[in-house]
Amino acid sequence: MQTFQIRYRNTQGTLMRILNAVSRRGLDMPSVHADAAQLDHEIVLTLDVNPKQIGQLYREWYAIPDVIKVRSGAAHEAEWSTAHPPTGVSIHRAAARA
Q1: CB 68 within 8 A of CB 7
Q2: What does 15-68 look like in DSSP terms, one character per residue?
Q3: 14-23 vs 51-62: helix crossing angle, rounded to 10
Q4: What is the C-alpha separation between 72 and 36, in angstroms, rounded?
Q5: Nearest alpha-carbon partner for 37 in 5, 65, 59
Q6: What is the pTM of this model?
Q7: Are 14 and 67 spatial neighbours (Cβ–Cβ below 8 Å)?
Q8: Which residues of the chain have pLDDT under 70?
Q9: Terminus-to-terminus CA distance in the chain, angstroms?
């Protein structure tokens, strides 16, 4: 599994063109998260791809005029990029109730 972080300007149709590049190849998208990121927007996709498909996706995404930056990494790195457990959740309190 590979995660892709794509930063783009939120103009009409940009998000759909990004997603269309994936769906045209028949790739599963187990995780998709799009959100505003400062002045631009960002989408984080988790895909099961081979190196050839990664190169194709990079070329197609960078061909979209409003795509600013594309980054990728292993999916397990993205899963642990946030605090575990999330801030404000106490493990000890839940264990005491059980």
Answers
A1: yes
A2: HHHHHHHHHTTT---SEEEEEEETTEEEEEEEE---HHHHHHHHHHHHTSTTEE
A3: 160
A4: 19
A5: 5
A6: 0.72
A7: yes
A8: 75-98
A9: 35
Q: Which amino acid is at 51?
A: P
Q: Minimal CA–CA distance to 6: which of 61, 49, 51?
A: 61
Residue 75's SS3 state is: helix
Residue entry with tokens 């892709």: 4
**Token couple for 44:** 């984080």
18-41 confidence digits (pLDDT tens): 999 999 999 999 999 999 988 899
Q: Alpha carbon of 21 to those of 14, 28, 63, 90: distances in Å?
A: 11, 12, 11, 41
What is the predicted pLDDT for the residue at 75?
Answer: 57
Backbone φ and ψ for 49, nearest 5 degrees, come out as -130, 160
